[in-house]
Specification:
Helix content: 10-25%
Bound molecules: heme C
Structural class: alpha+beta
Number of strands: 20
Largest sheet: 7 strands, antiparallel
Oligomer: single chain
């Protein structure tokens, strides 16, 4: 009887008792504790997805814009949008692989995760001790890095042409590995599918081969948010400007400039990814800038008083602000230039002062010009989100997200 057959029943008894049968079933790899590198036995057939694959005939990719908009392409590639998903490398992965920093202990004393890099790639391995001399382990390679690292990163792996989330994420504030958001501490779950909506927000293009929902053509995945997510397909624009008689008037530019859209359609460009997940009512990636998003994704209407979670919900929050309701021009680009990295909250105060006077703030009589650059601190405070909750060392962690409901907050300092 092989080691595998002998061990599996006893393991299943164990794990089902603790509710983990589902998580470690499937392609489990069982090794004796002393048998060496477990990842060698769990070789994944997936290829590292390449980032340069054109989406469809009419999309050309960021490199094509570089020839004429070099400055924009360069600065944009420094932003969180461009970096929100990347191929794995020691630069793109912010978690550490050195001894002493590469182990995540869990609340289950028999389960640890070890993060290792070698010439084949970067791996997460779950080691589950099942007896004094034996352990169960499963190892998967990091194939896609999700998150610029502003708050943290999650990691995905290919199992054939199916895409899954790995159980260990990285948390920037703690500079450490943590249990992935929504995963149960103390379990080794390698079965969480990556649905198309996740990639619609965190990548640019993919070919979905559902069912099952998380089946894709790996080579079709275009990582990062690209220029054309906000400007629409660019092939005709490029062809016209490369021709002998380039267009003179914007009506012939054959590209979407969101500035020329109505406010509602401008907001829709951002709302693809900043209005929450919603329910897709058309195939993925059907929306093109300029379209009315309501025909593509159904968003739940929230009660006027209900608290809206701050994670990825900037559009509905801004829409609740009196600034938005009482003006006709306020949009995302009143404050943001998405082609540049912008992080300094104080630098946004002049945007408020385009419509308000410092003296108009009712805290002014008390605090005077101390408030000049601090509008954001009090009127767009950082708030905890309940949507991306992870845990480490048995403690729950929730990131702070900037509220986009510009308002008077009773708790403001
Ligand atoms: C062959 C040169 C060339 C290429 C390649 C090119 N553009 Fe342009 N683009 C221009 C010129 C010239 C203008 C008009 C002047 C300006 O606004 O900079 C323009 C204007 C624009 C505008 C403003 C349109 C408007 O209505 O105001 C956008 C947006 C734009 N380009 C996006 C892109 C994107 C995205 C890509 C890559 C998919 C791209 N361009 C590739 C030459 C090019
Ligand atoms: C509706 C669009 C949307 C969906 C769906 C979505 N996200 Fe996000 N995600 C965002 C936005 C926007 C942010 C930026 C922070 C915020 O607004 O809370 C973000 C932040 C993150 C971050 C932190 C990034 C950083 O660098 O700080 C990670 C990691 C992440 N998402 C992973 C995922 C994964 C994995 C999925 C799918 C399983 C997913 N997200 C689904 C829009 C989305
Ligand atoms: C997240 C959405 C988004 C992405 C991604 C994006 N843009 Fe823009 N772009 C905009 C918006 C919005 C405007 C209009 C800005 C305004 O209203 O002033 C704009 C305007 C422009 C213009 C018109 C000139 C100007 O400065 O206003 C050009 C050219 C342009 N973008 C090129 C690019 C290129 C090239 C890329 C990729 C490197 C890119 N954009 C990526 C949203 C985006
Ligand atoms: C295709 C999806 C997508 C679209 C379209 C999109 N965003 Fe985002 N945006 C994201 C994701 C995902 C993040 C989180 C990136 C991260 O940190 O990993 C993000 C982050 C941001 C940030 C934070 C940047 C930082 O430095 O941390 C700003 C600001 C922002 N988006 C504004 C906009 C605006 C304004 C628009 C419309 C003009 C827009 N976005 C359109 C997906 C999108
Ligand atoms: C496009 C113009 C515009 C911009 C930009 C703008 N506001 Fe307003 N804001 C308004 C208008 C208009 C009102 C409503 C005034 C009224 O009804 O008397 C308002 C109302 C407010 C209120 C009262 C809110 C309430 O619920 O009673 C606060 C506080 C406020 N703004 C702060 C800010 C801050 C801080 C910024 C920058 C982050 C800002 N505004 C940016 C136009 C703007
Ligand atoms: C009145 C000014 C203002 C407007 C309008 C505005 N933002 Fe922001 N936004 C800010 C400020 C200030 C920050 C904090 C700066 C930072 O930390 O990057 C911010 C941060 C963000 C972030 C990062 C949030 C986080 O905590 O990680 C995202 C995403 C974002 N904005 C998206 C949007 C979108 C989408 C819109 C349009 C619906 C929008 N913003 C409109 C001022 C504004
Ligand atoms: C230290 C916190 C703080 C800072 C900083 C601050 N505010 Fe306020 N602001 C408040 C509070 C609190 C109120 C409401 C006071 C009340 O109702 O008694 C208020 C009220 C307002 C109002 C509503 C006035 C009205 O009559 O309804 C506006 C507009 C406003 N602030 C704009 C600004 C602008 C613009 C800035 C930046 C220059 C700013 N605030 C900075 C705390 C602050």
């Amino acid at each position: 009887m092989s080691l595998l057959e002998r061990q599996r029943p006893s393991l299943n008894e164990r794990t089902s008792a603790s509710g983990q049968a589902r998580m470690l079933s499937g392609t489990i790899v069982i090794v004796a504790a002393l048998s060496g590198a477990p990842w060698a036995m769990a070789a994944s057939q997936a290829q590292v997805p390449n980032g340069g694959n054109p989406y469809s005939a009419s999309f050309v990719g960021d490199e094509a814009c570089n020839a004429c908009h070099q400055e924009k392409v360069h600065s944009f590639h420094e932003t969180a949008h461009a970096r929100t998903s990347r191929a794995p490398s020691s630069e793109s992965i912010h978690g550490k692989f050195e001894d002493g920093s590469n182990v995540l202990k869990t609340v289950n004393p028999n389960l640890v995760f070890v993060m290792e890099g070698n010439e084949k790639g970067f791996y997460q391995t779950a080691h589950m001790r099942t007896s004094a001399i034996e352990e169960l382990s499963r190892s998967e390679r990091i194939d896609v890095v999700v998150g610029s690292g502003r708050k943290g990163q999650s990691y995905l792996f290919w199992d054939g042409d199916q895409l899954f989330q790995l159980p260990v994420s990285y948390w920037t504030e703690l500079d450490s590995w943590v249990n992935s958001p929504g995963f149960i501490d103390g379990s080794a779950d390698f079965e969480r599918p990556i649905v198309p909506r996740c990639l619609e927000c965190h990548a640019s293009s993919f070919e979905n081969l559902a069912p099952p929902e998380n089946r894709y053509n790996p080579a079709s995945l275009v990582l990062g948010v690209s220029c054309e997510k906000c400007h629409g397909p660019g092939s005709e624009h490029v062809a016209r400007f490369q021709s002998k008689s380039p267009p003179k008037s914007p009506v012939d530019f054959a590209i979407v400039n969101p500035r020329r859209l109505s406010r509602a359609r401008q907001l829709d460009v951002c709302a693809q990814c900043h209005q929450g997940a919603g329910e897709s009512i058309t195939p993925s990636l059907s929306f093109v800038p300029g379209d009315d998003l309501r025909h593509f994704i159904a968003f739940q209407k929230s009660e006027a008083k209900a608290r809206v979670d701050v994670h990825a919900r900037q559009v509905p929050l801004l829409e609740r602000s009196r600034c938005f309701q009482s003006s006709t021009t306020l949009t995302c680009t009143t404050c943001h230039d998405v082609h540049l990295p912008q992080r300094d909250a104080a630098s946004f105060a002049p945007r408020c002062l385009a419509c308000h006077k410092v003296e108009g703030c009712r805290a002014f009589p008390k605090l005077g010009h101390d408030i000049d650059t601090r509008c954001i601190d009090c009127h767009m405070p950082l708030q905890e989100t309940g949507k991306i909750v992870s845990s480490v060392d048995g403690k729950v962690i929730r990131p702070m997200v900037r509220s986009h409901q510009i308002a008077i907050y009773p708790e403001s300092p």
